Amino acid sequence: MNLPEHATRNRAQWNTWAADFVDAGRRNWATAEPSWGIWNLPGSRVDFFQGIERFAGTDAIELGCGTGYVSSWLTRAGARVTGIDISDEQLRTAGELRAQHDLTDISFLQASAEAVPLPDASFDLAVSEYGASIWCDPYAWIPEAARLLRVGGELIFLVNGLLAMLCMDEAGIQPALQRPLFGLHRVEWDDDDSVEFHLPHGEWIRLLRANGFEVERLLELQAPADAKTTSTWADSAWATKWPTEEVWHARKVR
Ligand SMILES: C[S@@+](CC[C@H](N)C(=O)[O-])C[C@H]1O[C@@H](n2cnc3c(N)ncnc32)[C@H](O)[C@@H]1O
Fold first, then answer.
1. Number of the ligand 1 atom closest to the C-alpha atom of 87
2. What is the CATH class of 5-252?
3. Domain regions of the chain by residue span
4. Global pTM value
5. Among the atoms of ligand 1, which is closest to the Cα of residue 84?
């Protein structure tokens, strides 16, 4: 793979982090009912797929699949799923869990979501939960998702909430703004070597539309009052008032 600097860094970082994500991967593969984000919100609170069963018989790709549990949920719902990820260690976990759950139909492929070695118009659904949606440059992965989707296909992705990102520093979400909204794009932290990408809402809409998508929904995820998370960056009291995470849902219309 001929990777840009941020992707090389993210691959190395995720190969290091992979061991810490095995338990969560195992838990999520073992649950039949999808749950979303750091608050593990069930489908009754986050209608992420608007009914996962409607993807039965369709071709789906997960961009930055990590341990592959979203791919497993889609496969059990009857979709033909390809999960791609840049990290060999994350894919090793995904492959082991695929074997344990006997879901051998899922194809896992090592590739960057910014340059996927698969033909145009191969998929009806592209999905990313904290995958390409965070770790890839939107100016590269959104055109790539558009290329991979058939006209009428759907793109659903989960990212950190915009306000949460504006308030976040190395210690987590602070009670005051930490960075400007204008120009928000590449974000790095002092305490690890990863590179993230985040955009203002207006820029997401412009970029999606420029790549042939219509935006259908923006879900702002609210933590319930009794919410618990193992995440170090979010506080449930904050997350009952402002969204720590959001889900974008767009359709390729041309
Ligand atoms: C938080 S994890 C994914 C979460 C996922 N829902 C799961 O099942 O674990 C983020 C993933 O993005 C992957 N990633 C980072 N940069 C990538 C890139 N350029 N292309 C594809 N995957 C990438 C990482 O290797 C990592 O596995």
1. 25
2. alpha beta
3. 5-252
4. 0.98
5. 21
